[in-house]
Amino acid sequence: MAVKVITDSTAYLDRKVLQEFNITEVAMTVNLEDRSFIETAISNEEFYQLIEGKKELPTSSQPSPLVFYEKFQELVEQGDEVFCVLISSDLSGTYYSAVQAGKMVQEKNPEARIEIIDSRTTGMHLGLAAMAAARAAQAGASLEEVRDAATSVLARSKLFFIPRSLEYLKKGGRIGEAASLLGTLLQVKPVLTVKGPVTVFEKVRTFEKAVKRMLQVFEEDYQTYGIEEVAVHHINCAADCEELLIKEIKDKTTREILVSPIGPVLGLHVGPGTIGMAYATKEK
Q1: Are residues 177 and 252 in the same domain?
Q2: What number of CA atoms fall less than 13 Å from residue 82's CA on the CB side?
């Protein structure tokens, strides 16, 4: 019997990472006019070409309970236990789909052990938690120990992102406390984070200053608590990410930097040009 780890596609874990850590990914869906597709089936370049110039943005939808049910049931029938860590329930109904599916599986299989947690975040903040859980599972940890590995990383991690424009946040609607910025679109380049909903970490005047502020917080945490893992995000701006973010991080730490492009489901809310980072400290 082993513990199998499941997360959703908004963690934006690289295919090689999913394979290396034996993590099962459940994909979110993008709905564009008369077509729907899972977000892992389309590249960022193609996605933004499709929506360029459109007045209304596509919508996204969570996996159905049936999708989770089939994944859970398959693993339970193999004799495995299931640990599932998912995008914040303030941003998506994915967590509730999984909970519903878990109850259905346990009604059919009373002995099944399924643990599902709401990460209260997304992106590589979620991804780092899934990786920690998977490392523990591969080392033979119990279901409780796998859960504790994930929650420990969530408690020691931060996620920041900086959109080039707030127009996508405005159109997408899922902006939480960032709604307070909409009256000052031209005057502010915010550093945003996710603590359940999207929240404003700090308001800065220019994009470059916002990036410097994000890096300043990272360096302060590095000096105070140490850095265990670090990842960077970007949407269709790999060169900017390299110049503004990755080079600066390399000057501060020798840790491997995971590069994680943000896909359509989160990307349609923040737009191309967005860069960000997630990292886990050694100490809480």
Answers
A1: yes
A2: 34
Where does the pLDDT of residue 173 fall: very low under 50, low under 70, confident under 90, or very high at 90 and above? low
User: Of 131, 155, 179, which residue sits at a domain end?
Assistant: 155
| Two tokens, residue 126 | 């979620």
CB 130 within 8 A of CB 147: no
46 lies in a domain?
no
Maximum separation of any 2 CA atoms in the chain, in Å: 57
CA distance 172 to 241: 24
Q: What are phi and psi for residue 119, nearest 5 degrees?
A: -70, -20
Q: What pLDDT band is residue 29 in, cutting at 50, 70 and 90?
A: very high
- What average pLDDT score do residues 191-220 get? 93
Look up the CATH number of the domain holding residue 110. Answer: 3.40.50.10440
pTM of model > 0.90: yes
29-32 and 35-38 as β-strands: parallel, antiparallel, unpaired?
antiparallel
Residues 229 and 130 in one domain: no
Give the three-class secondary structure for 2. Answer: coil
Is 260 within 8 Å of 233 (Cβ atoms)?
Answer: yes
191: left (phi over 0), alpha (psi -120 to 50) or beta: beta
Q: Which of 132, 155, 178 is the last residue of a domain?
A: 155
Number of domains within the chain: 2
The C-alpha atoms of residue 233 and residue 241 are separated, in whole angstroms, by 8
Instruction: Judge whether 13 and 136 are in contact, CB under 8 Å.
Output: no
